[in-house]
């Protein structure tokens, strides 16, 4: 039996049909394009079956499947070991070429290396495309070719290169939709993948909120955030579209997108930051790491309204306001002297927009152990943060209904905790 010759496009962190670089190139390969998504056991096995992020991936794939159905095509979806699933594809089809968009995280790099070898052994050409960033790991470097480890010069170089290039290209995939492989593959329901629908849902994004981002971004009660971050994380929106919009509408929001790429290239060039301090001089800090203190932080029962409201928002919705993230992270590392890795792991479990490089980078920033981090003697005062950024208490009352009734006392006094943190850091820093 002759096998159908196809080009495969492998969906990963790019769950959209529009302005998708790898898909655009695949559709011009000269062979029918079979769109594929693999639910990777190596990732899913560590997640609870109610994880809302898996539900969002499934929902996004369903939207793609609906679009494909309208043009007589469908998604080929499997769950399992990635290499085993690819061997199944090779057995069923004559795979001429494979296109995918690059992922820069350590697990993805190792996985792709394995799959690339498998495909090469089966005479399939592989094309890895740049899609989820404007500039990837080695496109913004110092004059000597080494990566930047301080944000501001990285940002300046990024902006210089961005403005000196032609306008951002956006890729019209729809013009080539007729090149999809004609098929009617069954679309699995969430239960067939081993998951159930969560009560926590990803919210629709809203680009119009970017315009006043610089004025409103620090005030959690205003709820003026764009809710773009999960969509950017899973690629349901194009980073080129966002950067084009931000460059016209708001420089501060654009800076946040540049921070994302900065942390991505840090993780790529310094993968040890996943588990270790970027600044090794901080390796001697004597962390307290008290389990009971960590539990109170996780459950939002520290007695500090800004901290507790943030953690309760996270636990109940999968979101946390950016200003509040800084406050809760500083509190864990400085007030409670608990290692940043504990908080990073908890955020990884709960955040809908969890992105490895940014999560690690921001936690090390808060702890003072990362590149271009906050100095160790900078200790946020949660009470002052509350007065400055939620002066009427609207945000904290939203998440702490008992605030005016039987709300507990702070678990640790700020002045004592601040002095203890500074002394502990000072004693632990290797000269």
UniProtKB/TrEMBL annotation:
Belongs to the DNA photolyase family. This is Deoxyribodipyrimidine photolyase. Transmembrane segments: none annotated. It comes from Flavobacterium crassostreae. GO terms for biological process: nucleobase-containing compound metabolic process; response to light stimulus; response to stress. The keyword Lyase applies. Its cofactor is FAD; (6R)-5,10-methylene-5,6,7,8-tetrahydrofolate. The lineage of its organism: Bacteria, Pseudomonadati, Bacteroidota, Flavobacteriia, Flavobacteriales. InterPro entries: Crypto/Photolyase_FAD-like_sf, Crypto/Photolyase_N_sf, Cryptochr/Photolyase_FAD-bd, Cryptochrome/DNA_photolyase_1, DNA_photolyase_1_CS_C, DNA_photolyase_N, Rossmann-like_a/b/a_fold.
């Amino acid at each position: 039996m002759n096998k159908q010759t196809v080009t495969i496009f492998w969906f990963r962190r790019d769950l959209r049909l529009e302005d998708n670089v790898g898909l655009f190139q695949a559709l011009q390969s000269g062979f029918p394009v079979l769109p594929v998504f693999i639910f990777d056991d190596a990732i899913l096995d560590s997640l609870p079956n109610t994880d809302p992020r898996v539900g969002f991936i499934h929902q996004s794939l369903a939207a793609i499947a609906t679009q494909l159905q309208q043009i007589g095509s469908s998604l080929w979806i499997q769950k399992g070991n990635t290499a085993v699933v690819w061997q199944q594809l090779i057995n069923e089809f004559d795979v001429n070429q494979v296109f995918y968009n690059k992922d820069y995280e350590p697990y993805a790099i190792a996985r792709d290396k394995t799959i690339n070898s498998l495909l090469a052994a089966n005479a399939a050409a592989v094309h890895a495309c740049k899609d989820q960033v404007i500039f990837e790991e080695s496109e913004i470097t110092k004059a000597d070719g080494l990566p930047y480890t301080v944000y501001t010069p990285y940002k300046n170089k990024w902006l210089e290169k961005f403005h000196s290039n032609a306008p951002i290209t956006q890729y019209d995939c729809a013009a080539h939709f007729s090149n999809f492989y004609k098929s009617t593959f069954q679309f699995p329901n969430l239960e067939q993948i081993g998951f159930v629908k969560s009560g926590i849902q990803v919210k629709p994004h809203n680009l119009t909120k970017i315009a006043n981002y610089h004025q409103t971004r620090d005030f959690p009660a205003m709820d003026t955030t764009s809710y773009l971050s999960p969509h950017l994380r899973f690629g349901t929106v194009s980073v080129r579209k966002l950067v084009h919009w931000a460059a016209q509408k708001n420089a501060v929001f654009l800076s946040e997108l540049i921070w994302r790429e900065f942390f991505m290239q840090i993780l790529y060039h310094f993968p040890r930051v996943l588990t270790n301090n970027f600044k090794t001089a901080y390796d001697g800090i004597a962390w307290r790491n008290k389990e009971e203190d960590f539990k109170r932080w996780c459950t939002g029962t520290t007695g500090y309204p800004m901290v507790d409201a943030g953690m309760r928002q996270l636990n109940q919705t999968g979101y946390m306001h950016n200003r509040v993230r800084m406050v809760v992270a500083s509190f864990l590392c400085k007030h409670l002297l608990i290692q940043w890795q504990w908080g990073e792991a908890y955020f990884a479990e709960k955040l809908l927009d969890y992105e490895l490089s940014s999560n690690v980078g921001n936690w090390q920033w808060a702890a003072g152990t990362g590149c271009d981090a906050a100095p160790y003697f900078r200790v946020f005062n949660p009470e002052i943060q509350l007065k400055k950024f939620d002066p009427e208490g609207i945000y904290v009352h939203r998440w702490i209904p008992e605030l005016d009734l039987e709300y507990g006392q702070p678990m640790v006094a700020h002045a004592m905790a601040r002095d203890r943190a500074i002394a502990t850091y000072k004693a632990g820093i290797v000269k």
